Amino acid sequence: MCMACSDKIASWNALGFQGAIATRFLTPLYLSSIVIGEVPHELRAVAREDCERALWKRLSSVPNPDWPPGYDVHIPEIHFTEQPFLYSRKMIEKIMPSNGSCNE
Fold first, then answer.
1. Contact assessment for residue 19 and residue 11, using Cβ atoms and an 8 Å cutoff
2. How would you write the chain as a 3-class SS string?
3. Residue 74: left (phi > 0), alpha (psi -120 to 50), or beta?
4. Is the pLDDT assigned to residue 83 strictly greater than 70?
5. What does pLDDT average to over the chain?
6. Per-residue pLDDT, 29
7. Roughly what angle, to the nearest 10 degrees, separates helices 44-55 and 5-15?
8. Which residues lie below 8 Å from residue 62, measured CB to CB, with a gap of 6+?
9. CB proximity list for 104: less than 8 A, separation 6 or greater
10. Nearest to 73 by CA among 84, 63, 83
11. pLDDT over 80 at 104, yes or no
């Protein structure tokens, strides 16, 4: 199964990011905050709304009374910066220009 980044983070916000083996020994480990780069100040309100929907609000329809103790939808803080992420496509293309081929 293929999952987008937002799918993985949404999953972590409900199940924790500790992995299957650690689940036997630990309570769920949740993200406390997320930093998203390359977001201009004027777009942050829209970006926040989109992030909230993608990362936890869509889980509100999942009933959780039957979940094991300690599990629940966790809501991390969202922070923005205008700084680019070092390994973003935009930054990598500055370092290594592409000719458009996906085989590079």
1. no
2. CCCCHHHHHHHHHHHCCCCHHHHCCCCCCCCCEEEECCCCHHHHHHHHHHHHHHHCHHHHHCCCCCCCCCCCCCCCEEEECCCCCCCCHHHHHHHCCCCCCCCC
3. beta
4. yes
5. 86
6. 94
7. 60
8. 14, 73
9. 98
10. 63
11. no
At 92 the pLDDT is: 80
Rounded distance, CA 57 to CA 41, Å? 23
34 pLDDT higher than 90: yes
Strand partners, 77: 33
The model's pLDDT over 12-23, given as tens digits with 9 standing for 90+, comes to 999 999 988 998
Dihedral pair phi/psi, residue 19, rounded to 5°: 90, 165
Distance between CA atoms of residues 51 and 57, nearest Å:
9
* Beta bridge partners of residue 36, listed in sequence order: 80
Q: Is the pLDDT of residue 97 over 80?
A: no
